[in-house]
């Protein structure tokens, strides 16, 4: 498939969204695992780099006394994950074309359509900033106590009578923002890397793919949350495998949902 930068040549009506059965996400995971095994150290190093960055960000919040934001930073991770996985999509594309992975990197993938990818990525980071800002405001309005120690944060804020309103409001806001981010990112980022489309068209196709395959895409969202969540609760260590697995699987989801015209 041609992978040159955006020139505006692909029209909305030329893109087709396929209908997939409910169990198709398990096939995407199986193909993602196969890519992970083939890519080997390339994928694992990519995952390890993200873990190191995540650890540094978390450490920064704790050092500056903003440890109450750590759980929300972890949750916000899901909002920007589609962009973080850009290099993994490219690895799967190289494997698909039987090309070597030696020169495969996220920067190369970014350059294929950097203008449109920048626009869409900015949108994801804006959503994440809204998520963090919303929790700042909700915490100030609905939780009257001082920020509890990190070790007792979950119990005091999410399960105490005082923090229950904050917990419910935070979960509600997070769900809305996460679902919006998921709908616009399900296939848009790999599509922008792979095809000559603009960001608006990629987002429209992504939303259409989710809406027309709601059962399968809901299951896929649940699997992503489960697998990445397991990586997060292991103090990020599990993300070394979880992120490459989901990234490679996302490429195959895109391939299934928006088939090539060739």
Question: Could you walk me through the main structural features you see in this protein, from its secondary elements to its overall organization?
Answer:
By secondary structure, this protein is mainly α. Helices cover 72% and strands 0% of the residues. The longest helix has 29 residues, at 114-142.
Write a short abstract of this structure.
This protein is an all-alpha fold and 262 residues long.
Low-confidence regions: 1-9
Rg from C-alpha positions?
A: 19 Å
Tally of strands: 0
What fraction of residues sit in β-strands?
Answer: under 5%
Which structural traits does this protein have?
about 260 residues; mainly alpha; disordered N terminus
Fold topology:
Blueprint: H1 24-39, H2 41-63, H3 70-84, H4 86-96, H5 106-111, H6 114-142, H7 153-158, H8 164-185, H9 188-194, H10 199-212, H11 214-233, H12 239-257
Helix pairs in contact: 1-12, 2-12, 3-6, 3-8, 4-9, 4-12, 6-8, 6-9, 9-10, 10-11, 11-12
